[in-house]
Specification:
binds S-adenosylmethionine, three-stranded antiparallel beta sheet
Length: 266
């Protein structure tokens, strides 16, 4: 079937990952914002499909007067909410179309987020420019070399700065991307770090995600000079029935879908 996506687990380089994901997120951005924009809210900070809201969770603490960077910001809903809390929040994303949505929402809400195109693995900012760096299901699982992205976060943070990020919970990598009970089956090893890759009929990579275990993430944070301060595994809230890809109430009742790390530099 022409144009069919063929998913597999296979190795993929950083260059292929970036090229594929930039193209994929550019193409998917309109549908993504149409599908999830209401749940995310134009000025709102949702960490994950479970709906953990920074307004209550306060993972980043008091941000008033702080320089904050959102990595993999999409349409920058989170950074926009942080600006209403007094933060000097800015965003960065790989996909220009996502940033066009950010500018559209800036115009619609009047809350403007300065946002630039770039990659988490080469942040276009000077050393020690931020008090907080965070990513809500942004870049961390979309890069080949997560250690490099974590080190970049450390570089642009000031000593004592906060780094927090949410990713697909590593245990979910053992299962198919199916939110129903049919997806409650272990089909691959937790320790298999081979990336998830989609490719077209010509074998060209069109999308890639990279898996690390909980231990890998802790090791990467320690190696970059971070002290882990929290690992949240949000429970699926009662009455929350919104399905988002592989996340939904059926599996959410039994297993975590998100890992939310927080750490301090030094
Ligand atoms: C699931 S969205 C999350 C965005 C936002 N937090 C939200 O909830 O809508 C993932 C975002 O990460 C971006 N992304 C993927 N790889 C990236 C990279 N290497 N550097 C920066 N952003 C990246 C994508 O373009 C996309 O906008």
């Amino acid at each position: 079937m022409p144009g069919a996506v063929q998913p597999s687990r296979r190795t993929v380089s950083e260059a292929e990952t970036q090229r594929a994901n930039r193209r994929d997120w550019d193409a998917y951005a309109d549908e993504y914002q149409a599908t999830h924009g209401t749940f995310l809210r134009d000025v709102g900070f949702v960490w994950c499909p479970e709906g953990v809201d920074e307004a209550e969770a306060r993972v980043l603490g008091d941000v008033a007067g702080r320089d904050v960077l959102e990595v993999g910001c999409g349409a920058a809903q989170c950074a926009r909410w942080l600006r209403t809390q007094g933060a000097r929040a800015v965003g960065l994303d790989l996909a220009e179309r996502q940033l066009q949505h950010a500018r559209r929402i800036d115009d619609e809400t009047g809350v403007r987020v300065p946002a630039v195109a770039g990659t988490a693995t080469a942040l276009p900012f000077a050393d020690a420019s931020f008090d907080v760096v965070f990513s809500a299901f942004g870049a961390l699982q979309f890069v080949y070399d997560a250690g490099h992205a974590v080190a970049e976060a450390a570089r642009v943070l000031r000593p004592g700065g906060t780094f927090a990020f949410s990713v697909t919970h590593p245990v979910r990598w053992t299962m198919p991307d199916d939110p129903t009970s049919a997806g409650l089956v272990v089909t691959s090893s937790y320790w298999d770090r081979t990336p998830y890759v989609e490719q077209d009929d010509d074998g060209r990579v069109t999308y890639a995600e990279h898996h690390r275990t909980l231990g890998d993430w802790v090791g990467l944070l320690a190696a970059a000079g971070f002290r882990l301060t929290g690992l949240r595994e949000p429970e699926w809230p009662a009455g929350h029935d919104r399905v988002w890809g592989g996340w939904g109430p059926e599996r959410g009742r039994l297993l975590p879908g998100t890992a939310l790390f927080s750490a301090v530099l030094g």
